[in-house]
Amino acid sequence: MTSAKGLEGVVATQSAISSIIDDTLTYVGYDIDDLADNASFEEVVYLLWHQRLPKADELAELKQQLADDMSVPQEVLDHFKTYPITKVHPMAALRTAVSMLGLFDEEAEDMSTEANYRKAIRIQAKISTLVTAFGRIRKGEEPVAPKSDLSYAANFLYMLSGTMPEDIEVEAFNKALVLHADHELNASTFTARVAVATLSDVYSGVTAAIGALKGPLHGGANEQVMKMLTEIGSVDNVDSYINEKLANKEKIMGFGHRVYRKGDPRAKHLREMSQKLTKIRNEEKWYEMSIRIEEIVTGQKNLPPNVDFYSASVYHSLNIEHDLFTPIFAVSRTSGWLAHILEQYADNRLIRPRAEYIGPGMQTYVSIEER
Ligand SMILES: CC(=O)SCCNC(=O)CCNC(=O)[C@H](O)C(C)(C)COP(=O)(O)OP(=O)(O)OC[C@H]1O[C@@H](n2cnc3c(N)ncnc32)[C@H](O)[C@@H]1OP(=O)(O)O
Ligand SMILES: O=C([O-])CC(=O)C(=O)O
What we know:
By secondary structure, the protein is mainly α. Helix content is 57%, strand content 3%.
């Protein structure tokens, strides 16, 4: 037996949801550039779950279902107040909260296709309520109830800030949600599929996936990018900061990718949004610093930015607290996780690879007195 470290290059499943071929990302055959420029997040959710774009009435129905299901059991909100709330990372809180949601879902153990689809809608609806409510409760503010006439993107921003978002903010946020929705067999999606391939329930799959997304080599990188930008502080400091990191062989967060070689097609959309929003906010330094970092890292290491790099300055420009960046990634990626979970159930086989054993050969047990 031979092993591929990190399963690099291993094709572990078939999927009809999204593909990365020659650095082109598609959702069900639609180019991500096309979707980023034209689609609403709700349309993308439908696309990922049904493998076709919705007709107008189907989209209206999904939007209605999502709006109807956004409220979260009071017990889950109250539970937030029992956490050491100013210290816990919001991704850790979200991981617990999604698991707890399952306790209040009467259909949690119903494994029928219909019940699993209904749970997908409920989880997608409630996850943005959870993130925004946590963001408020930890500051001593009351959660804000969603408005049923707002889009998913607008509702998130509204529930988080308590004020109506501007059109440009909704446009940027919707685009970010579309861009993050799915990405073939990334680590968190694989995690979700492994969990449910044991025929565990949907909540297990999403909870496990949140845990995998949290790490800085995956979704957690967007928060680390903002930490780095904040530490650098100004364009003048970029060169020395980045050169020192590279000389010390440290990783620059938001760069590199396991699959893309020429570059992540999502990054340019976020770069464009970052330029627009930082200009509107009169805080161009975040964009200018990012551009200079990109020049250095691509120039010296030939590593292009990934989706996490420019999303940081975009979310910062939307006045979102930095530790909520990864939970926002989770809000969007939940749609992809759920699509993969439903696909896994539809043609399931336990996922159980092998390990190449590299430990000692056969040994004889020695009693504790003789060791
Ligand atoms: C949504 C997402 O999950 S996108 C990815 C988000 N994560 C990040 O941005 C974190 C920074 N990037 C990384 O750590 C990596 O590029 C990953 C995890 C994304 C991909 O990792 P892998 O395919 O396993 O590549 P690996 O980590 O083995 O790196 C290969 C080489 O490139 C270097 N490298 C990779 N990424 C970076 C980086 N961001 N900065 C500097 N060097 C890097 C490594 O040091 C290594 O060099 P070496 O061969 O001299 O030792
Ligand atoms: O595909 C990956 O390995 C990571 C990634 O870009 C994503 O999950 O969006």
